[in-house]
Amino acid sequence: MAAAEPIRIGLQAPITGPWAYEGEMARNCVQIVVDEVNKAGGLLGRPVEIVLGDDQGSPKQSALVAQRMVSSKVAAVVGTYGSSVNDAGSVIYERSGLVNIAYGSTAEKLTEQGRKYFFRTCFRDDRQGEFFATFAVDKLKAKRVAIVHDNTTFGKGLAEAARRPLLAQKKAEIVFYDAITPGERDFTAILLNMGKQNPDVVYFTGYYSEAGLIIRQMRTLGIKATFVGGNAAVNDEFVKIAGPNVAQGALMTQEPLPTDLDYPQSKAFLAEYMRRHKEPPSSPWPVYAADAFKAIAAAIQGSGSTDSKAIMNYLRNDLKDYPGITGPISFDAIGDREGAIYLAYEVTTDGRFVPLQ
């Protein structure tokens, strides 16, 4: 008998470019769950094959990858990291009727455009913004807050999501609100302007590649305000860029890191990741990628079909509290994952991220 034709599922991720570290971890995480599925006999009696698409962290490249995924006739797509990047690809997936589940794209607008085939296993910016506002006022006792974003869909969205509840609470003043340009390396001018406003807390809502430079340059300029990064600033590269001495004491608003998840599926997954790669994933996003694959696999098996419309209907109507690595997975009417948990993390003297007590 001829071998059964494999079911092909796409993984879109930044394998190269400024966010390649995240892309590498996403590929590693997804491979673990693919291997588990294939070891158990595959889906619908067929093996699963991953089709990898490198979007380089670029919206333009994301659109090209999406076009290739559609022409490759994959059953569904996991991806990607970065809301602006995801948005460019998701337009094409929607037009083609191809299910795509984002794992690192939290901008609110992604699920507010009426897309039927878009879902995400990560959580939305508005929930993180509310968490920061409460944390800054109640825990950090902030009176003067600076918010800096990077004008990306994600960065600006999270900045706005933090500004709204701060303004509503009227307990802390937003003394500075501005944007940097991603890819630049010298932020002296904007940081000098920010420093003149004497903030006691700085919330940076962009990505780790700039976050590490910003905190380092803040300290060089003598700006002593508490640095808080959003959930795109958390990974080992932030510490490497900033330097361990500078990074120490930096705070992050973040979904629970893989090492802090207490579900049975989390512990088994983390043990296998450690066995293969000798260290845990240093951000939550790649684990959300694994959960996106698991949701797609459950929908294919549950619907008995690789047809994207059948997968979409199953995800929207029938997938309820599916036991994912990061907790139960259900999607609401617009494709957002239900529920949300955020923690504040602090960088330790040895460069680790630990929940702030």
Spans of at least 5 consecutive residues whose pLDDT stays below 50 are none
Supply the CATH architecture of the largest domain.
3-Layer(aba) Sandwich
Question: Outline, from the CA principal axes?
Answer: globular
**CATH H level, superfamily name of the largest domain:** Response regulator
DSSP summary, beta strand count:
14
- H/E topology pattern: EHEHEHEEHEHEHEHEHHEHHHEEEE
Please state the structural category.
alpha/beta
**What's the CATH topology name of the largest domain?**
Rossmann fold
Overall pLDDT level: 96
- Estimate percent helicity: 40-55%
Structural key phrases:
alpha/beta; Rossmann fold; 2 domains; 7-stranded mixed β-sheet; 17% strand
